[in-house]
């Protein structure tokens, strides 16, 4: 009986926190439309670099800086600016696209000698019927 109890307590102390963190993360990100990882171009660049959303529907993107230097995020043509994102931090941008087209997004913080290549494309398409 005591052995069973200690096994249960051991499980509660080891597995429960992990399950808790995973559940919390799932809850915290339930409203995200997409997630972009940010790394300097020579370390992987933005990932993904092409995202497609339907016009007229709210978009929530989390940009996670998984690098060791500061990055930034902006979609100038859509007037979206996530500002600077410190290493290891993330930011969330929200917008509702009103027109169909392709819009470049950029890193807005000088992060490496290849900084100018740190970019991608947001494609806004007609809603599928
Ligand atoms: Cu950058």
TrEMBL record:
<dbReference type="InterPro" id="IPR002429">
    <property type="entry name" value="CcO_II-like_C"/>
</dbReference>
<dbReference type="GO" id="GO:0004129">
    <property type="term" value="F:cytochrome-c oxidase activity"/>
</dbReference>
<keyword id="KW-0186">Copper</keyword>
<dbReference type="InterPro" id="IPR028096">
    <property type="entry name" value="EfeO_Cupredoxin"/>
</dbReference>
<dbReference type="InterPro" id="IPR008972">
    <property type="entry name" value="Cupredoxin"/>
</dbReference>
<dbReference type="GO" id="GO:0016020">
    <property type="term" value="C:membrane"/>
</dbReference>
<dbReference type="InterPro" id="IPR001505">
    <property type="entry name" value="Copper_CuA"/>
</dbReference>
<feature type="domain" description="Cytochrome oxidase subunit II copper A binding">
    <location>
        <begin position="29"/>
        <end position="129"/>
    </location>
</feature>
<dbReference type="Pfam" id="PF13473">
    <property type="entry name" value="Cupredoxin_1"/>
</dbReference>
<protein>
    <recommendedName>
        <fullName>Cytochrome oxidase subunit II copper A binding domain-containing protein</fullName>
    </recommendedName>
</protein>
<keyword id="KW-0479">Metal-binding</keyword>
<dbReference type="GO" id="GO:0005507">
    <property type="term" value="F:copper ion binding"/>
</dbReference>
């Amino acid at each position: 009986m005591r052995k069973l109890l200690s096994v249960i307590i051991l499980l509660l102390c080891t597995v429960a926190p992990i399950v808790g963190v995973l559940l919390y993360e799932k809850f915290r990100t339930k409203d995200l439309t997409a997630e972009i990882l940010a790394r300097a171009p020579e370390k992987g660049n933005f990932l993904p670099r092409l995202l497609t959303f339907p016009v007229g529907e709210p978009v929530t993107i989390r940009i996670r800086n998984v690098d060791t230097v500061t990055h930034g995020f902006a979609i100038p043509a859509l007037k979206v600016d996530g500002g600077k994102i410190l290493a290891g931090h993330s930011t969330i941008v929200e917008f509702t696209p009103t027109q169909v087209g392709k819009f470049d997004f950029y890193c807005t913080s000088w992060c490496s000698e290849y900084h100018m290549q740190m970019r991608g494309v947001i494609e806004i398409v007609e809603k599928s019927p």
